[in-house]
Amino acid sequence: MRYLVLSDIHANLAAFQAVLEDAPPFDKIWCIGDLVGYGPDPSECVALLREYDHDCVAGNHDWATLGRIDTDDFNPDARRALEWTREHLDAAGRAYLEQLPSALHFNDFTIVHGSPRQPIWEYILYAGVAANNFAHLQTPYCLVGHTHTPVIFQEVTHNNGTASVATLSPEYDEPLPLPAVRLIINPGSVGQPRNHDPRASYVIFDADERTILYRRVEYPVEITQQRMYQLGLPMRLAARLSNGW
C-alpha cells in the first residue's frame, strides 16, 4: 500500500495538479489539512481531492473558513483571503470541510495538522516544541503540517535514560527506511512552501517497504499568481509564491 502524503494545499490548484502528475503510483491520499485559504481555487481543490480515495484532517484555515476560529487570530493578508474564501467556497466544499476530524489514527501513524498536543493550531518549528509533543503521541509516527516546511523530528533515547530530539532535513528522492524510534514527519506544503524553495513538496509513504520518500516538483506559479491578482486576493500572498517564503 502506497500513500501520497499532502499538506497545506491552500487552494492552489496548479500546485495540487502538478503533485498528482509527478507522484509515483499510489493507492490512497493522506491529506494533513488546510485545503483552503490563501489561494484562488478552494472549491476546485476540495473537489479534486474527493476524486481520490483519501483520508483528511482539518487545518486552521479550514476551521477559520467555517467560522470555528476567529479570523482576528490571523495576519491581515490571511484574514482577507479567509474572508474571500468564505464568500467563494461552494456548498459542496463547505459541507466537506464541516465533516473533517481534527485527528486520525492509522496503525503506527497519528495524523494532525498542527501537533499531537494541539491538533489544529500549534506550530512544530523547533526541537523543543517537538520534544514536548512526543509526550502526547500514542503512536510511533506522527504526520503534521502547518509550518509549510519539510522536516523530520526524531526522538533519541540515551543510555542514561534521558531523551532528546534531533532535527533532520529530508533528502529528496532517496527512500528513508522508517527507524524503530518515534518520528514527527512534516511533508512540507503543496500550495505555499515557506523554506525558500517555491516547488510543491510532498511525501510518499510505502507501507510495504516501510519507507518515506520526499519529493519536490515545479508548477506554473504564474498561473496561480495571475488568478490571485484577477480575483483581488492580497498581492503579498501571490508574490511570495515565486520565492517560497
Summarize the amount of helix as a percent range. Answer: 25-40%
Question: Which CATH architecture is right?
Answer: 4-Layer Sandwich
The total of beta strands comes to 12
Strand % is: 15-25%
Shape: globular
Number of domains: 1
Radius of gyration: 17 Å
The sequence of SSEs as H and E is: EHEHEHHHEEHEEEEEEEHH
What is the structural class? alpha/beta
Distance between the termini: 34 Å
This entry's quaternary arrangement is single chain
SS summary, helix count: 8
The largest sheet has its strands arranged as: 3-2-1-11-12-9
Which ranges are low-confidence, i.e. pLDDT below 50, for 5 or more consecutive residues? Answer: none
Features:
6-stranded mixed β-sheet; alpha/beta; single chain; 245 residues; Purple Acid Phosphatase, chain A, domain 2; 28% helix
In summary, what is this structure?
With 245 residues, the protein is of the alpha/beta class.
Description:
- This protein is an alpha/beta fold and 245 residues long.
- It has one domain: Metallo-dependent phosphatases (Purple Acid Phosphatase, chain A, domain 2).
- Helices cover 28% and strands 24% of the residues.
- The protein is built from eight helices and twelve strands.
- Strand 4 and strand 5 form a beta hairpin.
- The longest helix is centred in the middle third of the chain and has 13 residues.
- It is globular and about 60 Å long.
- The mean pLDDT is 96.
